[in-house]
Amino acid sequence: MAKAMKVDPELCISCGACIDTSPAVFDWDDNEKAVAIVDQIPENVEGDAIAAQEGCPTDAIKDA
Ligand code: SF4
Description:
By secondary structure, this protein is an alpha+beta fold. It has one domain (5-63): Alpha-Beta Plaits, CATH 3.30.70.20. It has helices spanning 17-21, 46-55, and strands at residues 5-7, 26-28, 34-36, 61-63. A hairpin with a 5-residue loop joins strand 2 and strand 3. The radius of gyration is 10 Å and the shape is globular. 25% of the residues are buried. Iron/sulfur cluster is lined by residues 7, 12-18, 34, 56-58, 60-61. Keywords: Electron transport, Iron, Iron-sulfur, Metal-binding, Transport. Residues 3-31 form the 4Fe-4S ferredoxin-type domain.
C-alpha cells in the first residue's frame, strides 16, 4: 500500500530541504510553505520522500 504524507503548515519553517530532497513529492504552496503534491507517493520516489520526512528540521512532515 502506497504511503502518503502531509506537511503541518504550523510547523513548516520554509527551509526548502524537503523540496530539494524529494521534488516529486513536495513543492511550495501559495503561502510559501511546503506541501505534498501527490496523494499517494509513487514507489520509485518513496525513499526520497522518507529521507525528506526524516530530514525535516521541525518534524513537520507527517504520515497521512
Ligand atoms: S523540510 Fe520541513 S520545514 Fe523545511 S520546507 Fe520541508 S516541511 Fe518545511
